[in-house]
Specification:
Blueprint: H1 9-18, H2 20-34, H3 36-45, E1 53-54, E2 60-61, H4 65-70, E3 71-77, E4 84-90, H5 96-102, H6 114-141
Antiparallel strand pairs: 1-2, 3-4
Helix pairs in contact: 1-2, 1-6, 2-6, 3-6
Amino acid sequence: MTEQIEGLDELAEKLASMGAKVGGRNLSKAARFATTPLVTAARRRVPQSNEGHRLYTGEWVAPAYTKRKGIKKRVKLSRDKTRVWSDVGVTDKAYYSTQFVERGTSKQPAQPWLVPAFDATKDQVLDRMKSRLKKLVEDAAR
């Protein structure tokens, strides 16, 4: 799922005028700030077992492993520091939460939690991105 913010030409010009390093740093900060509600919503929605289990690595984990440690966000900046990507998903050790729980299996019905969390927060994430980016650009311009 990808969302793109349109109509921010003026902000983009201001970012470019600040130089790649400062503009890129501000893009990354804004993306990290913006995706926080999505991570929070995903943690609230992920189904959890009342029992611990073994991971594919053999490691024993307590109930609610995905909720506590398995959901992460990652922000990537393009080489020219003019575009930013933010991924919210599960760690390698918690892949089962999306593979088997979100999508379901032949023996277990799907229990979607990540896609509904995205759908519920995408407008908020975009608004937070716009407002934080605007603030960071104004602060850097001073």
